[in-house]
Amino acid sequence: MSTRIEHAMEKLKKTGVRMTPQRHAILSYLVDSKKHPSVDEIYRDLEGNFPSMSVATIYNNLKVFLEAGLVRELPYGDGASRFDAEMSDHYHAICSNCGKIEDFEYPPLHSVEKVASEKTGFQVTSHRMEVYGLCKDCQTITKH
């Protein structure tokens, strides 16, 4: 079992959340996934091992993980939120064609939060940056 999953399980335990087999499967899936899955993708990929697990179960568990600070929700314009268990400061590159999302490292832009706060009077708590373009696969497809 990965250290990230063990850490997440410990964090849930401290908040009084019991680790069920479904919860463990969803959490493991998110930690191991690099594709920032939607609820439907999580359901589709796990239903073979958990035929009694519903989409509602996944939503409810994601809510628990969000509240515990174990995942972040990435709401996008297509109406389907994506979920990311990588909680370090990072940004996302998103394919305008297929919707693939990839993480990339860049120094956190905390100065943007400070400027936004000063200019608007908002108490800024976070920010999100995305860049859009064509992933390698879609570039190859469009060249043919």
SS summary, helix count = 6
Average of per-residue pLDDT values: 89
Radius of gyration: 17 Å
CATH secondary-structure class of the largest domain? Mainly Alpha
Largest sheet: 3 strands, mixed
As for the CATH topology of the largest domain, it is Arc Repressor Mutant, subunit A
Number of domains: 2
Alpha carbon gap, first and last residue: 43 Å
User: Could you list the spans in which at least 5 consecutive residues all have pLDDT below 50?
Assistant: none
Give the overall shape, derived from the CA principal axes.
globular
Across the major sheet, the strand order is 4-3-5
CATH architecture of the largest domain: Orthogonal Bundle
Protein structure class? alpha+beta
Approximate helicity band: 40-55%
* Counted beta strands: 5
The CATH homologous superfamily of the largest domain is named Winged helix-like DNA-binding domain superfamily/Winged helix DNA-binding domain
Keywords: DNA-binding, Repressor, Transcription, Transcription regulation, Zinc
Protein name: Fur family transcriptional regulator
Pfam family, one: FUR
Family: Belongs to the Fur family.
What does this structure look like?
This is Fur family transcriptional regulator. The chain is α+β, with helices and mostly antiparallel strands and 144 residues long. It has 2 domains: 3-84, Winged helix-like DNA-binding domain superfamily/Winged helix DNA-binding domain (Arc Repressor Mutant, subunit A, Orthogonal Bundle); 91-143, Ferric-uptake regulator, C-terminal dimerisarion domain (Dna Ligase, domain 1, 2-Layer Sandwich). 44% of the residues lie in helices and 13% in strands. It has 6 helices and 5 strands; from the N terminus they run H-H-H-H-E-E-E-E-H-E-H. The chain has helices at 3-14, 21-32, 39-46, 55-67, 110-120, 136-143, and strands at 72-74, 82-84, 91-95, 101-104, 130-133. The strands form 2 sheets. A 3-stranded mixed beta sheet has the order 4-3-5, with no helix packed on it. Strands 1-2 form a two-stranded antiparallel ribbon. A hairpin with a 5-residue loop joins strand 3 (91-95) and strand 4 (101-104). The longest helix is centred in the middle third of the chain and has 13 residues, at 55-67. It is globular and about 45 Å long. The N and C termini lie far apart (43 Å). The mean pLDDT is 89.
